[in-house]
Amino acid sequence: MQVIEIKPENLIETAAPLKNEFNLLISVSGVDKLEYYELVYHFYSTKTHKKLILKTKLSKTNPEIESLSGLYSAANWHERETYDMFGINFLNHPDMRRILLPCDWKGHPLRKNYVNNDERLCWNER
Amino acid sequence: MIKNPVKKDMLINVGPQHPSTHGVLRLVMTLEGEIIRDTEPVIGYLHRGKEKLAESRTYTRYSPMVDRVDYLSAFFYQGAYCYAVEQLAGLSVPKRAEYIRLITMEFNRIASHLLWLGSFLLDLGATSPLFYVFREREEIINLLEQLTGQRMMYNFYTFGGVKKDFPEGWIAKALELCKKMPALFDEYEAIITKNPIFLERTKGIGIMSPELAIDYAITGANIRASGVELDLRKTGPYSVYEELDFKVCVADSGDSYDRYMVRIAEMRESTRLIERAIELLPGGIPEKLRVKRVNCGCDKQDCRYCGFDTRLAGKKVNPVVFKPPAGEATAMVEAPRGMVMCYIVSDGSTNPYRVKWRTPSFSSVQVLPELVKDKNYSDLMPIFGSLDVVLPEVDR
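Predict the joint structure of the above. Result:
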């Protein structure tokens, strides 16, 4: 499987020509690497049946990146999920809201420093 | 939400507790009369945090949880997880274990498609097919219960193999069932395929063009019904599928009816695959079913876990010391609902650093607003049912 590492500002320029071959956006996953966030895009080609991984690093202080939902409609929900779990902000996304967790949830659970200390969830304490 | 109050648009909630949503899905719909103008799926009611749970568990302790991602096709999720971990740890699976995996997966695929068939027709108002499919599904599930001891959440695969060999007489029973199955599929087709009410409600309804399907990354039977030949069993072979000959079932119009036809054809193909796999099943003693030496990495002769004596005694893999090296792995598996991807990042400790699940139903729900736009409200269930969505899998 081919892996390409890019800078976050080059995402659209890299993904747009790739779309001719890699036409399926399989998933967008975030990884909290302690010093930075890593975004991993999995692509699949229905023509040549190859797989491709795009990786990019985002800073911890201000994690934001251009949205791919203009190129792939599939990116819409996958990016919402990544926002929900990691708090990564996707710019120019049509509908940047939480998707899996309730809309009033505090924090982003898949961050490594996440602590569930929401006082409204006191019934969870045993 | 309501764009034109003058024309008396109506905002209604379908779900979360709705009998035809196969779980807990809420659709916020704007209707104009009976025409659906806008749909907004709201998901997350069954979110159990499977990805977060992986962080606090060892690789072995996480493996039973994997089954619960999708309760109807547990083997595929176990398979994806095991293939990813094996890729990380560099384990190779014995041939016979791969064949056992293939046979169980295909049985699981038939069982899953059968349940889909029953619930889909129940959505359309036909009650009797549900009883037919449960009759056959019961036989498959009994068979798998004899093998694994569980009816739905099997927890049967381990890293580097499977937990048990087939019990005595299992293969004969499986073959007998495979022989019986095509006649039963004929039975369903006799009551469904040419049924005028069914044709009226599904033919030409919910047409998904190949471009739309690719744009939304729809996989599995849904994209094959639109004429895109995408089957990981054929194109990205993961088990021993390349040794077996089977055809990818494709239809071309992409409506609800075609999705039904593709799944029926797939069930027939699966029975053929199982029969062929049983023919080719390599022999071997049960001890060979599993890689015994999952070491702690030191590979020294006097080590407690990798030493020669341990190998001879054939002790089971100690879950505490199972530490794949740091790295990452992606495994993709063709589940009944589409492409399942498991992406694991390991930091060299006993717990996975990050597990990402890509589930096919997530995309299928996402495309629903496009499919039902400007359609009659009564077409909602034939379209949604035919996509074969399982909600626990969407929310994970």
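Residues 5-42 of chain B form one domain.
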